[in-house]
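Sequence in, structure out.
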Amino acid sequence: MIFDELDALVCDLDGVVYRGDEEVPGSVAALTSLRERGLSILYLTNNSRSTIDQYLRKLRGLGLVVERDEILTSAVVTAETLADRGLAPGPVLVVGGEGVERELTAAGFEIDGGDDPRLVVVGWDPRFDYDMMRRAVSAVRRGATLIATNADTTFPAAGGDLWPGGGAILASIEAGAGARAEVMGKPHAPMMDAAERRLGGARAVAAVGDRPGTDLAGARSKGWRTILVLSGVVGRDELDRLEERPDVIAEDLAAAVRGEVLQ
């Protein structure tokens, strides 16, 4: 079984651990058993809306034992990366919710940077409307650099639905501005490099996710093994169209841990 060979597991959240506020059945028990076996677990999510504190409350509320440094979001990576480039302090226009705003503020950026922001940072924001799109497009056309926390066009919600994600918001801004964003989240290097640093030298790593083009593509870029679960955005009818086959395919994380795999 793949889990017997690992030092660490990089685990996506939406569509793997939960959908909306509902646990994917068996995921908490599966993760608890892996932790008890001694695996290090890093929760890695492209969803940038929530703060680390909010993720801690949500995961602990589901019954998981998890510490702050075991959660990494694309909002954290975005703020760290931009600050490391020497861009803070500076005015930033944010379309992305509290998670992005909190991390950029902590990194020294001035949020809602008036009429002439240096950066426009886009993530998922349910408050998004035409006026926010207009302001972002205008700022980019005036020379602001367009940054995206992630480019996921959808995310798995409760009840089996797929809702528009940050990538859908980003697409409207890119279209209006005639520009392409630099993306920080999975599978791109800023997110994957940050995850690798937080794993502390673990040698045998696998990533579990529901998105082949982000979760698993990012894992492959680091030489990690890949586990695809069908509890999120990909269904059985789409498996034949995968460009690269994961090391393991299972209905959900609990099935993967039990060894009930489709591949």
